[in-house]
Amino acid sequence: MARVLTPRAEDFPRWYQDLIAKAKLADNGPVRGTMVIRPAGYAIWERMQAEMDARIKAAGAENAYFPLFIPESYLKREAEHVEGFSPELAVVTHGGGKQLAEPVVVRPTSETVIGEFMAKWIDSYRDLPLLLNQWANVVRWELRPRIFLRTSEFLWQEGHTAHATRDDARAYARRIVHEAYEDLMVNVLGIPVVVGLKTARERFAGAIATYTCEGMMGDGKALQLGTSHELGQNFAKAFDISYSSAEGGREHAWTTSWGTSTRMLGGLIMCHGDDNGLRVPPNLAPVQAYVMVVKDGEGVGEAAAKLRDALHDAGVRVALDDRTDTPFGRRAVDAELRGYPVRVEVGPRDLATGNAVVVRRTDGSKSPTPVADVVGAVLAALDADQRALHDQALAHRKSHTVEVSTLAEAIEAAATGWAMVPWSAVGVQGEAEANGHSVTVRCLLRADGSVPDSEDEPDLVAILARAY
After folding, report:
1. Which pLDDT score, from 0 to 100, does residue 2 have?
2. How far is 404 from 401, CA to CA, in rounded Å?
3. What does DSSP say about strands 254-261 and 222-232: parallel, antiparallel, or unpaired?
4. Which of 329, 214, 217 is nearest to 273 (CA)?
5. Contacts of 315 by beta carbon, 8 Å cutoff, 6+ apart
6. DSSP letters of 177-199?
């Protein structure tokens, strides 16, 4: 197959940009830092949305929508929050040809505006927990944009909840990170993630704890794919989110927030893509099986249409490509770039022997298959290749992760992958030193791999890496 992408090993950033362009996933927007998500890319995002939305609702949250414009004064109520976001804010000072009495911020995140309305809607302990989620766009003025990974405007979901106790809030923040985020990333996106606790230096502005899902990309760097935050009572006190307790007293609520975004698309590309393009895990793929007419005539078109219908009836997301006025080689290259998990190629020669050719994107194998057996072969391939992509990514992460005992060794190891080092050998001062080498503490884990409650726990392990 003709080479259409810069090889990953030669120039990973160029390969990434090439793939996005050639697979027609997205384009740069007219304003620096913005992006246009093309239909092929948006179809994948829609599948991510649907899968994530189902998991969020299973955790009890309901969808709502809050304004894009937020009074500047709202952000100033929580000092750490506004300080953390100030460099990224887009602020509107004029509207309708007149200067506004108060500037409004274009939504960078919604803790403040949702906090305002939580305060209105919550009166009694009977109103808790209040579990909300919204699907929206946000704006964070990005100085070094990269499509899907860092753009000035991106799409996401953001959850916001209020609880009667800190224990309830913590349990819910952890439930989301495991049951919604980790489950989606591992079982649908096929990306093995490490779930851990962010350090104080890395946690969300205004939070008391941040839990993260970290994935390793093809070049050994880390990507933060989703976070869930315990906000304590910081926002509840700033916005007076309070309730009458069962004992009759007035108490401030404990709140959480959590989010994932179109950054997951970037992670999908960098985790599973190869030199021929994207490889989409079957559980996620908008098109799982792509039936292609190699050359028309001799009943090929009719046979291909029947295969499409049989696959559809078997529950496979399937599409038919019968554009015989376009060279087959070009169409096959496009299918490789788009990462369709399975192609079913139907041509006169194969059909004459009662076969079609089943092509698997994950390993590139091509198997002549009796037409009557195609549906079964496709279903088996989809199941096997979902596991294969995850297992390949996990093997890559394991082979590029080393255990070290000193900060210096961790910084050196982070040049090519991840380093696991005792947190006691890093600490706050060591973390600052690592940052000076463009290395960050991605998260903290207990020795058994579980998520700690605090970075002050003994015997914690830190994962250090370069990151996107």
Report:
1. 52
2. 10
3. antiparallel
4. 217
5. none
6. IIIIIIHHHHHTS---EEEEEPP
Residues 310-355: pLDDT tens digits? 999 999 999 999 999 999 999 999 999 999 999 999 999 999 999 9
Taking the chain, what is the end-to-end CA distance rounded to the nearest angstrom? 31
Q: How far apart are CA 446 and CA 134, in angstroms?
A: 32
Helix residue spans in 27-152 (DSSP H): 39-58, 72-76, 79-85, 111-121
Helices (H), ranges, 199-260: 234-239
In 27-108, which ranges are continuous DSSP H helix? 39-58, 72-76, 79-85
Give the separation between CA 105 and CA 83, rounded to whole angstroms: 14
In 3D space, the residue among 417, 217, 416, 414 whose CA is nearest the CA of residue 426 turns out to be 414
Total-model pTM = 0.95
- Identify whether the C-beta of residue 114 lies closer than 8 Å to the C-beta of residue 107: no
φ, ψ of residue 413 to 5 degrees: the values are -65, -30
Q: Residue count of the chain, please give it.
A: 468
- Residue 93 three-state SS: strand
| Structural domains of the chain, with CATH | 12-272 (3.30.930.10), 289-382 (3.40.50.800), 401-466 (3.30.110)
Decide: residue 356, CB within 10 A, 0-12 exposed, 13-18 middle, 19+ buried.
buried
Handedness of CA 195, 200, 204, 206 (dihedral sign): positive
Cα–Cα distance for residue pair 225/366, rounded to 1 Å: 34
Residue 228: phi and psi, rounded to 5, are -135, 135
- Burial annotation 23-60 (CB, 10 A radius, 16+ → b, else e): bebbebbeeebbbebeebbbbbbebbbebbbebbeebe
Best CA proximity match to 340, nearest among 360, 324, 366, 312:
360
Whether the Cβ atoms of residue 463 and residue 422 lie closer than 8 Å to each other: no
For residue 426 the two structure tokens come to 């890093």
Q: Are 57 and 97 in contact (CB under 8 A)?
A: no
- Rounded to 5 degrees, what angle do the CA atoms 260, 181, 388 make? 115
C-alpha–C-alpha distance, residues 77 and 413, integer Å: 42
Instruction: Reduce the DSSP state of residue 16 to 3 states and report it.
Output: helix
Residues of the chain falling short of pLDDT 50 = 1
Crossing angle, helix 263-272 and helix 12-22, to 10 degrees? 110
Please name every residue paired with 63 in a beta bridge, in sequence order, or none if there are none. 133
Alpha helices (H) along 339-423: 348-352, 374-399, 407-413
